[in-house]
Task: structure prediction
Amino acid sequence: MTKIKICGLMTLDDIKAVNEAKPDLAGFIFAPGRHQINLEQALKMRKELDSSIKSVGVFVNASLDEMLKVINSGAVSMIQLHGNETPDTIKLLQDKNIPVIKVYKPDNLPTSTTADYLMIDSGSGNGKPIQWDKLRIKTDKPLIIAGALDTLNIEQAIKTTEPDFVDLSRGVETDGSKDPIKINKIVQLVHQL
Result:
Protein backbone atom coordinates (compact mmCIF):
# COMPACT_ATOMS: atom_id res chain seq x y z
CA MET A 1 0.00 0.00 0.00
CA THR A 2 1.28 3.42 -0.94
CA LYS A 3 1.15 6.00 1.84
CA ILE A 4 0.12 9.62 1.47
CA LYS A 5 0.99 13.02 2.90
CA ILE A 6 -1.40 15.96 2.65
CA CYS A 7 0.69 19.11 2.85
CA GLY A 8 0.07 22.82 3.18
CA LEU A 9 -2.55 22.58 5.93
CA MET A 10 -3.52 26.03 7.18
CA THR A 11 -6.83 25.90 9.04
CA LEU A 12 -8.74 23.83 11.56
CA ASP A 13 -11.12 22.93 8.72
CA ASP A 14 -8.12 21.42 6.91
CA ILE A 15 -7.37 19.38 10.04
CA LYS A 16 -10.97 18.19 10.23
CA ALA A 17 -10.75 17.04 6.60
CA VAL A 18 -7.54 15.07 7.13
CA ASN A 19 -8.84 13.57 10.38
CA GLU A 20 -11.77 12.16 8.39
CA ALA A 21 -9.67 10.98 5.44
CA LYS A 22 -6.78 9.52 7.52
CA PRO A 23 -3.67 10.21 5.42
CA ASP A 24 -0.41 8.92 6.86
CA LEU A 25 1.29 12.31 7.20
CA ALA A 26 0.15 15.93 7.49
CA GLY A 27 2.40 18.79 6.42
CA PHE A 28 2.77 22.23 7.99
CA ILE A 29 4.78 24.68 5.88
CA PHE A 30 6.97 27.13 7.78
CA ALA A 31 8.78 28.38 4.66
CA PRO A 32 7.66 31.60 2.93
CA GLY A 33 4.87 31.11 0.40
CA ARG A 34 1.13 30.82 0.01
CA HIS A 35 0.77 28.00 2.55
CA GLN A 36 3.11 29.41 5.22
CA ILE A 37 1.94 29.20 8.83
CA ASN A 38 3.57 30.19 12.11
CA LEU A 39 4.29 28.08 15.17
CA GLU A 40 1.20 29.26 17.03
CA GLN A 41 -1.05 28.14 14.15
CA ALA A 42 0.81 24.82 13.88
CA LEU A 43 0.37 24.10 17.57
CA LYS A 44 -3.39 24.74 17.38
CA MET A 45 -3.69 22.42 14.39
CA ARG A 46 -1.46 19.70 15.89
CA LYS A 47 -3.65 19.72 19.01
CA GLU A 48 -6.70 18.92 16.84
CA LEU A 49 -4.92 16.51 14.47
CA ASP A 50 -5.64 12.80 14.97
CA SER A 51 -2.76 11.41 17.05
CA SER A 52 -2.25 8.57 14.55
CA ILE A 53 -1.29 11.07 11.81
CA LYS A 54 2.33 12.25 12.04
CA SER A 55 2.95 15.93 11.38
CA VAL A 56 5.82 17.15 9.21
CA GLY A 57 7.39 20.61 9.34
CA VAL A 58 8.47 21.91 5.92
CA PHE A 59 11.43 24.29 5.86
CA VAL A 60 13.63 26.00 3.24
CA ASN A 61 17.14 26.96 4.41
CA ALA A 62 15.91 27.59 7.97
CA SER A 63 18.30 27.78 10.90
CA LEU A 64 18.77 24.70 13.03
CA ASP A 65 17.48 26.69 16.02
CA GLU A 66 14.25 27.52 14.19
CA MET A 67 13.63 23.89 13.26
CA LEU A 68 14.44 22.63 16.75
CA LYS A 69 12.07 25.19 18.27
CA VAL A 70 9.23 23.78 16.16
CA ILE A 71 10.17 20.17 16.95
CA ASN A 72 10.57 20.85 20.68
CA SER A 73 7.16 22.54 20.79
CA GLY A 74 5.52 19.28 19.74
CA ALA A 75 3.98 20.84 16.62
CA VAL A 76 5.77 18.37 14.31
CA SER A 77 7.62 15.09 14.65
CA MET A 78 9.42 15.04 11.29
CA ILE A 79 11.31 17.66 9.26
CA GLN A 80 11.19 18.13 5.47
CA LEU A 81 14.08 20.10 3.97
CA HIS A 82 13.37 21.88 0.67
CA GLY A 83 16.48 24.05 0.43
CA ASN A 84 20.26 23.73 0.26
CA GLU A 85 20.64 22.14 3.67
CA THR A 86 23.89 20.28 4.25
CA PRO A 87 24.45 16.69 5.38
CA ASP A 88 25.69 18.22 8.66
CA THR A 89 22.26 19.80 9.26
CA ILE A 90 20.57 16.50 8.47
CA LYS A 91 22.86 14.68 10.91
CA LEU A 92 22.26 17.22 13.68
CA LEU A 93 18.51 16.68 13.34
CA GLN A 94 18.88 12.90 13.19
CA ASP A 95 21.10 12.96 16.29
CA LYS A 96 18.02 14.28 18.10
CA ASN A 97 15.94 11.35 16.75
CA ILE A 98 14.15 13.55 14.22
CA PRO A 99 13.31 11.78 10.93
CA VAL A 100 14.38 13.91 7.97
CA ILE A 101 12.91 14.11 4.46
CA LYS A 102 15.26 15.73 1.92
CA VAL A 103 13.76 17.09 -1.28
CA TYR A 104 15.50 16.97 -4.65
CA LYS A 105 14.50 18.20 -8.09
CA PRO A 106 14.25 15.67 -10.94
CA ASP A 107 17.28 17.17 -12.70
CA ASN A 108 19.42 16.98 -9.55
CA LEU A 109 18.81 13.50 -8.17
CA PRO A 110 21.53 12.25 -5.81
CA THR A 111 23.05 8.81 -5.95
CA SER A 112 22.60 8.68 -2.18
CA THR A 113 21.34 10.80 0.69
CA THR A 114 21.95 10.80 4.42
CA ALA A 115 18.30 11.74 5.04
CA ASP A 116 15.79 9.15 6.18
CA TYR A 117 13.51 9.76 3.18
CA LEU A 118 14.19 10.98 -0.35
CA MET A 119 11.54 13.18 -1.96
CA ILE A 120 11.39 14.19 -5.60
CA ASP A 121 9.50 17.41 -6.36
CA SER A 122 9.48 19.64 -9.41
CA GLY A 123 10.54 22.65 -7.42
CA SER A 124 9.75 24.48 -4.22
CA GLY A 125 6.17 23.30 -4.15
CA ASN A 126 5.43 25.10 -7.39
CA GLY A 127 2.88 22.58 -8.63
CA LYS A 128 4.71 21.74 -11.86
CA PRO A 129 4.13 18.22 -13.19
CA ILE A 130 7.01 15.78 -13.57
CA GLN A 131 7.39 13.28 -16.40
CA TRP A 132 7.75 10.31 -14.09
CA ASP A 133 8.33 7.85 -16.93
CA LYS A 134 11.51 9.75 -17.90
CA LEU A 135 13.11 9.44 -14.45
CA ARG A 136 15.43 6.67 -13.38
CA ILE A 137 15.14 6.64 -9.62
CA LYS A 138 17.56 4.55 -7.57
CA THR A 139 17.48 4.92 -3.81
CA ASP A 140 17.82 2.71 -0.77
CA LYS A 141 15.67 5.14 1.23
CA PRO A 142 11.87 5.37 1.27
CA LEU A 143 10.83 7.37 -1.81
CA ILE A 144 8.30 10.20 -1.73
CA ILE A 145 7.05 11.79 -4.94
CA ALA A 146 5.41 15.21 -5.29
CA GLY A 147 4.72 17.71 -8.03
CA ALA A 148 1.27 18.53 -9.39
CA LEU A 149 -0.23 15.19 -8.36
CA ASP A 150 -4.02 14.86 -8.35
CA THR A 151 -6.73 12.26 -8.93
CA LEU A 152 -6.14 12.37 -12.70
CA ASN A 153 -2.44 11.42 -12.65
CA ILE A 154 -1.79 9.76 -9.28
CA GLU A 155 -2.31 6.17 -10.43
CA GLN A 156 0.11 6.55 -13.35
CA ALA A 157 2.72 8.27 -11.16
CA ILE A 158 2.52 5.48 -8.57
CA LYS A 159 2.66 2.69 -11.17
CA THR A 160 5.65 4.32 -12.86
CA THR A 161 7.76 5.15 -9.80
CA GLU A 162 6.51 2.72 -7.12
CA PRO A 163 6.99 5.26 -4.31
CA ASP A 164 6.54 4.61 -0.62
CA PHE A 165 4.65 7.92 -0.25
CA VAL A 166 2.95 10.50 -2.42
CA ASP A 167 2.70 14.14 -1.30
CA LEU A 168 -0.15 16.43 -2.35
CA SER A 169 -1.09 20.00 -1.60
CA ARG A 170 -2.57 21.97 -4.51
CA GLY A 171 -3.92 18.74 -6.03
CA VAL A 172 -6.47 18.54 -3.19
CA GLU A 173 -7.54 22.19 -3.36
CA THR A 174 -10.46 24.03 -4.93
CA ASP A 175 -10.14 27.78 -5.42
CA GLY A 176 -6.97 27.89 -3.29
CA SER A 177 -8.39 26.06 -0.25
CA LYS A 178 -8.18 22.45 0.82
CA ASP A 179 -11.20 20.51 -0.43
CA PRO A 180 -12.41 17.77 1.99
CA ILE A 181 -13.99 15.78 -0.85
CA LYS A 182 -10.77 15.79 -2.89
CA ILE A 183 -8.70 14.90 0.18
CA ASN A 184 -10.93 11.97 1.05
CA LYS A 185 -11.04 10.70 -2.54
CA ILE A 186 -7.27 10.80 -3.07
CA VAL A 187 -6.45 9.20 0.29
CA GLN A 188 -8.83 6.31 -0.40
CA LEU A 189 -7.44 5.91 -3.93
CA VAL A 190 -3.78 5.94 -2.89
CA HIS A 191 -4.31 3.51 -0.01
CA GLN A 192 -5.74 1.03 -2.52
CA LEU A 193 -2.64 1.16 -4.73
Notes: Residues 2 and 94 are 24 Å apart (CA to CA). The chain is about 30% helix and 20% strand.
